[in-house]
Design brief:
The structure is a homodimer. Chain A has a single domain, classed as P-loop containing nucleotide triphosphate hydrolases (Rossmann fold, 3-Layer(aba) Sandwich), CATH 3.40.50. Chain A contains twelve helices and five strands. Chains A and B meet through helix 2, helix 3, strand 2, helix 8 and helix 9 of A and helix 2, helix 3, strand 2, helix 8 and helix 9 of B. Chains A, B: This is Polyphosphate kinase-2-related domain-containing protein. Chains A, B: Pfam families: PPK2. Chains A, B: One of its GO terms (molecular function) is phosphotransferase activity, phosphate group as acceptor.
């Protein structure tokens, strides 16, 4: 069974005329199946993903120039970023994964260029990195809350494009995903966190403060995605009211990124026959 | 079905009169079932492990004093350390896991006390840390190869016990596992790496150099485990010729460590009713 491919995801790609308001968070563009079909499909290529990841890891381990993947996740609170990490990345060998979660910058970080703390968390060669939030917060909450002056926000869009071009040139394949939920769905998910004592820890009164600025955030997302979706590192705006859909999409993008490297197992940098003899003699 | 418990593992605990040579790497002490029974048992408590891990993570997230777990893995090449990480730790939410793999120390690290680089990789509160090799290399290869003078090696056993007591006092539950394989089994596993081109990257000619010092390594392990197996942080010497057994044991030790914390979901540090009202008004 074919997975949800990058080609299928073309319809989710952000173009310069991107209109976030026109995208229905309940929809499943590019996928004609139902939830049960997605469930069957979801684990279909897990072994292949595991093997491709190991191949990438192997190339880096023996010192060959190896690429890396960086899955960058953005979305409003409760949009399912953590679930993607658990369910999509959870299937990969943890030794090959590097996860960074970006909170509000510290006092020290605020004194540096916004990309400094980002660079420190880039995945090593051969690894799959995940950014749970990212440098995009510096043009999202920072824009909405006016934490930085407009001319600095303006400068950042270009700086981000340059930075991501540089990443691509150095062998890091970036997969940028915005998980797009509706305000109603967020309300329901936050209400569940308040209902269930085992979910209270996930709730923060500040979540409602941001929610009250919903429209401003949607604007900030639309502008940010428009201005930073490039040929090399496009944005995918993934409807995420149905978690099974957004997870299927991200897994497909990851699989295609790994396939795209077309990596072979690294050849031995030692004489295999000599080593077989040495091993036989070491019994 | 009960898991393989810490009580079952009592027979694997290293006592002061520990004799490594008397432990059969093919055996499965404490377990009366067969491979198929172990397979059934292996995933039985995955949901519970996931929930306990999330509970620990939650406590740390809301700023409560939260414990952490540190699974420390030692063993000769091919003893299955990577497989433990993949199969035991692979089931846990990657956001709650921190893996460190210790290679030969760099020039800079050699100029520092041997514990400096170890401390830098300790798991944060609420996390499950894994050490693939550890500070024990500093009394294993360093002893066998005489990379450090005897009196320094001698000093390290005590320094390790002090360090681990300190870890325990600060809330880190240490699980120390030596994966014990036979020389014959290692030979077979290395031969497989040489046979299969997709495994060549895992082979290093240096592996045979160390293998030639097998008996010296067994001695170094026996001494290290004897001298650092304490009431608080005991060593488990786990027969590892049968991978299904060693994985079952480690998963059981992890489950019991998490259960032992007896953690509750953290109570809300906000007024739940007030927040429900605020949320309702934010529609």
């Amino acid at each position: 069974m074919p997975h949800f491919t990058t080609e299928d995801a073309a319809v989710l790609r952000v173009a310069p005329d991107f209109d976030l308001g026109s995208i229905d968070p309940d929809s499943t563009p590019g996928f004609t199946g139902k939830k049960a079909d997605a469930a069957a499909l979801f684990t279909e290529h897990d072994e292949e993903i595991a093997e491709l990841q190991e191949r990438m890891f192997a190339n880096a381990r023996v010192g060959r120039a190896a690429p890396s993947v960086l899955l960058l996740l953005q979305g409003m609170d409760t949009s399912g970023k953590g679930g993607i990490v658990r369910h999509v990345i959870g299937g990969v060998d943890p030794q090959g994964v590097q996860i960074a979660s970006f909170k509000a910058p510290t006092q020290e970080e605020r004194g540096q260029d916004f990309l400094v703390r980002i660079r420190e968390q880039l995945p090593a060669a051969g690894k799959i990195g995940v950014f749970d939030r990212s440098h995009y917060e510096d043009v999202l909450i920072q824009r909405v809350r006016a934490f930085a002056p407009p001319e600095e926000i303006e400068r950042r869009y270009g700086a981000i494009v340059d930075f991501e071009d540089e990443l691509a040139a150095s062998g890091t394949k970036l997969i940028k995903v915005m998980l797009h939920i509706s305000k109603g769905e967020q309300g329901a998910r936050l209400a569940e966190r308040l209902e269930r004592p085992d979910k209270h820890w996930k709730y923060n009164p500040g979540d409602v403060d941001e929610r009250l600025l919903w429209d401003q955030y949607q604007d900030a997302y639309e502008i940010a995605l428009r201005r930073t979706s490039t040929e090399t590192s496009p944005w995918y705006c993934v409807p995420a009211n149905r978690k099974w859909f957004s997870r299927l999409v991200v897994k497909g993008l990851l699989l295609d990124a790994l396939r795209g490297f077309d990596l072979q197992w690294p050849a031995a940098d030692f004489d295999v026959e000599v080593e077989k003899r040495r091993l036989a003699e070491s019994a």
